[in-house]
Specification:
The chain has 12 helices and 14 strands.
Length: 387
């Protein structure tokens, strides 16, 4: 077959194909190309890996089982885990000294991947500030301090509100008109609590006198016991402490006197002596701070000071031994603190040197409260290193 013949045949075949296609169009049976199959859903998107949990560490000055300060912080840590589940992972180190060793602990916590670190006592302030300056990608929270940085902020509870409410009960329960307080370290926080306890007692019994014995430690049960017994020997029949163990309450129980729980509910440690417990609930703040970190809203260079109003302070487990009128007085104070209608530190208030520290109707602001280094009228002795 010649090349011309081949070309003719191919041309004829082409015309035949075109004719067939035209006939199909005329019959309304247009053949469409099949739609492309949907792309399969990637398996990876259906089983996307969970984000890594936010690692949070706590440094405690005392043992978790102290029944007071550290126990309260650890209860709040547990509440944090319950609130956020596997979105966070928490850990703690207990009995961290308020010394250079605290710096090592903070660095070790950061080295383990913790991005939010809580230091739960005043003496951690300088070590934490130093570590925060070196580790800008870690968020630091310091309890009871007053120094902040771009990645470090402070938080505190208005423990003096609980001390005042305990004082109201103490003033009505004492037979000797002498109260006793076991003090830890003479810093404004502790002095403020001693004074507020006394002011609360004097609101129902102007004859009240308060004796103080210092142990210069936060947690030392034998020294706390010795101090409590010394106060009892000096005529105090109702005791309060600003220390971390239950030793003061237990000493009162053995001596047939009254006392209060501090930081946590201590009823079980001395049920006969126990009048009530001034407790701190750290959970609301810890939940907020963690939520801030998870949401990318956490900011440093700030301070929080929460009390009854925010649900951080309360007086609980008031004994049946306490008369109804005293309970009503406490509830009235509590309601006033919550809605802002009652102020504890409102003049006239005098120091125990007889000089006014607040004039009539003058209200103390937080700056004043943070710098208290004097005893109010009715508290015996002098503040170590103060007035």
């Amino acid at each position: 077959m010649t090349s011309i013949s081949k070309r003719a045949l191919l041309k004829l075949a082409g015309w035949s194909t075109l004719a067939a296609g035209t006939a199909l169009v005329g019959c309304g049976k247009k053949e469409e190309a099949p739609a492309p199959a949907p792309a399969p859903v990637a398996a990876a998107s259906a089983a996307a890996p969970k984000p890594e949990p936010l690692k949070i560490a706590f440094a405690y000055v005392g043992p978790v089982g102290d029944g007071g300060w550290t126990f309260a912080h650890d209860n709040a840590r547990k509440a944090l885990e319950k609130q956020f589940g596997d979105r966070i992972a928490t850990s703690f180190v207990e009995k961290v000294p308020e010394a250079a060793d605290a710096e090592r602990v903070f660095r070790d916590m950061a080295g383990q991947g913790n991005k939010l670190i809580f230091g739960t006592t005043f003496g951690y302030m300088e070590p934490m500030l130093k570590v925060a300056a070196d580790l800008k990608d870690v968020k630091f929270e310091h309890a009871t301090g007053f120094k902040q940085a771009e990645n470090m902020r402070t938080y505190d509870s208005r423990t003096y509100e609980g001390a005042y409410m305990a004082g109201v009960i103490a003033g009505g329960m004492t037979k000797t008109n002498t109260l006793g307080v076991v003090g830890s370290i003479p810093i404004p926080e502790v002095i403020r609590n001693i004074n507020s306890f006394t002011l609360g007692a004097q609101s129902v019994n102007p004859k009240i006198k308060t004796k103080v014995v210092w142990v210069n430690e936060w947690f030392n049960p034998p020294k706390e016991t010795e101090a409590a017994q010394s106060l009892i020997n000096g005529g105090a029949d109702v005791l309060m402490q600003n220390t971390d163990s239950s030793a003061v309450l237990q000493t009162a129980e053995k001596a047939g006197k009254y006392a209060f729980g501090w930081d946590s509910d201590m009823t079980a440690y001395g049920p006969k002596a126990h009048l009530a417990s001034s407790i701190i609930n750290w959970a609301p703040y810890y939940i907020k701070a963690t939520q801030d970190a998870l949401d990318g809203k956490w900011t440093g260079n700030s301070a929080s000071w929460w009390g009854v109003k925010e649900g951080a302070i309360d007086l609980v487990s008031i004994s049946d031994k306490v008369p109804a009128e005293l309970k009503e007085k406490v509830e009235k104070v509590k309601a006033g603190l919550k809605d802002g209608s009652f102020t504890i530190w409102k003049g006239p208030i005098a120091g125990n040197d007889g000089k006014d520290v607040l004039k009539k109707d003058e209200v103390a602001d937080d700056k004043f409260m943070s710098g208290i280094k004097f005893f109010v009228k009715g508290v015996e002795g002098k503040v170590p290193g103060g007035k």
